[in-house]
C-alpha cells in the first residue's frame, strides 16, 4: 500500500459553503490552505445529485438572498429574493472562482482518520469514485498545524422507529433521498410524511402538486407555526433585527404570532396545533402549505403510534392506509473520522448536543481545531455564521491579539449558554444548535473587532437597528473589512413596519425633549 504526504498550514474538511468560506478567510490572512472534499464538486448539499445526498429538484432557499450570502460577495441583482438551488449552486461556484478556492481543493477524497501527532494534525484519506466507493489501496496523508472541520450537522439521516414499520409493504425513505415524485415513485400514490420542518413541507407540496397524489398527509408530533416567506411584501427574514430583539420574549412572541395569524389564520384552525410559541422553534417557511390544507390537498395528522401493513395508526385513534412513507425527521452529527478521545470532548454520545465553546472550540483541545458551521440559524442563513466563525479562527491561528479564554472560563460560558438555550427554545433535538444569527454573529465578531459599530455611521445604524442589515454588516469593521459593505447594506430592503416604528419612536422622543425644554423654560427662564 503506497502513501503520499501533503503539508499545509491549515486543513479544511469539506467544500460546502462553510468549508469554502473557511478556506477563503484563512487564505486572505496568508495561510496555505488545503481543502479535502469527498465529492467531485463544491457546494455540499446545494449541489443537486440525482443518486446521492443533496437538495430536491424543487428546492429554493427559505432565507432571502440578502441574509443567505457571503459577506463580500452579494448575489447578482437579477437573482430572485429566494433563489432556486441551481442559482445557489452557481453562486457558490462563482464565489469559489472569484477567490481562487478551487485550486486549494482535493476532490474525491474520503477522510478515514484524523489524529493529533504532537503539535500537528494528521488526516488520512483515500481516493473515492463518484459513487463514494474507494478506488485503489493508496492513501494520502495530509499534515497541518490547524484543522477546520466543516462537515456540518446534516451528515447522517435521523430515522425514527415505529412499531410494526417492518410490515409496511411500500417504500419508506428519508428526505435526504427524495428528489421528486416521479424519481421516488410517489406520483399518484398515497403519501405519508413524518415531520413538519422545511423539508417536510417542501416534499408535501411537491407530492400534492407535481405528484398528483390523491392523499398527502403530514404527521407531526409537536405541531408548527407556518411562516409565509413574505410579510407585507418583503422577505420574512428581513424583520429579524436588533430592534425586535429588544422586545421582552413574551411580547415578541405575541407580536409575531399575531402577524402570522392575521396573514394565514390561526395555526389551530388548520390542525397544525403547535406546542411551542412562534419564536421558540426553528421557523417552517412556506408560501403555499396553508392554501393546500385549506383545499384538502394536504392533511395534518398527529404522531404515528404504530404501523400495521399499509395502515398507519395515529395517537388520536385515527388511521389511514398509505403507499409511501417519507421520513423528514432531520439529521445527526456524524464525525466517524475523529478519534474517540476527541469525539467524546466534542459531542454528547447519541445526540446532537455539542460540547464546544461558542459552538466552535473544544476547551480541552484548544484553538488548533475548529468546528465551523455546527450551528443552526433561527432566521437568516448559515453562511454569515460560518464566516464569522472562520474569521475568528483565522485570528486565533495567529496567536497574537486574539486568544481563547482559559479552559475554566470556556466551560463556565458553555454552562451558561446551555441554560440559556434550554430557556430559549422548545426542547427537541433540532434546537440543540439553534442560535439567533444577529445576536450570535455580534457576539463572535466582538471577539476579534468586527462587531458593527452603530455609533460610527448614523444612517447605517438606522438600517442595522430597524432592518436585518444583510450579510455585509460584519465586514464594516475588523480584519479584512470590505470597502463595499456600506453600499451593500443600503441595498438591503428596510421593512416598512419597523421603519415606521422607528420614525414614531424618534418623533415621540423629539416631542418629549421639546415638552421638557418648554417646561424647564416656563419654570426657570424669565
TrEMBL record:
**GO molecular function term, any single one:** NADP binding
What are the TM regions of this chain, as residue ranges? 500-525
What are its cofactors? FAD
Q: Print the keywords alphabetically.
A: Endoplasmic reticulum, FAD, Flavoprotein, Membrane, Monooxygenase, NADP, Oxidoreductase, Transmembrane, Transmembrane helix
Subcellular localization(s) per the UniProt record: Endoplasmic reticulum membrane
Specify the domain of life of the species encoding this protein.
Answer: Eukaryota
**Topology term for the membrane:** Single-pass membrane protein
Give the enzyme class.
oxidoreductase
UniProt GO cellular component terms:
endoplasmic reticulum membrane
**What Enzyme Commission number does this protein have?**
1.-.-.-
**UniProt xrefs under InterPro entries:** FAD/NAD-bd_sf (IPR036188), Flavin_mOase (IPR000960), Flavin_mOase-like (IPR020946), FMO-like (IPR050346)
Q: Which reaction does it catalyse?
A: trimethylamine + NADPH + O2 = trimethylamine N-oxide + NADP(+) + H2O; hypotaurine + NADPH + O2 + H(+) = taurine + NADP(+) + H2O; N,N-dimethylaniline + NADPH + O2 + H(+) = N,N-dimethylaniline N-oxide + NADP(+) + H2O; hypotaurine + NADH + O2 + H(+) = taurine + NAD(+) + H2O
Q: Can you tell me which family this protein belongs to?
A: Belongs to the FMO family.
UniProt function note: Broad spectrum monooxygenase that catalyzes the oxygenation of a wide variety of nitrogen- and sulfur-containing compounds including xenobiotics. Catalyzes the S-oxygenation of hypotaurine to produce taurine, an organic osmolyte involved in cell volume regulation as well as a variety of cytoprotective and developmental processes.
Name of the protein in question:
Flavin-containing monooxygenase
Q: Which organism is it from?
A: Lymnaea stagnalis
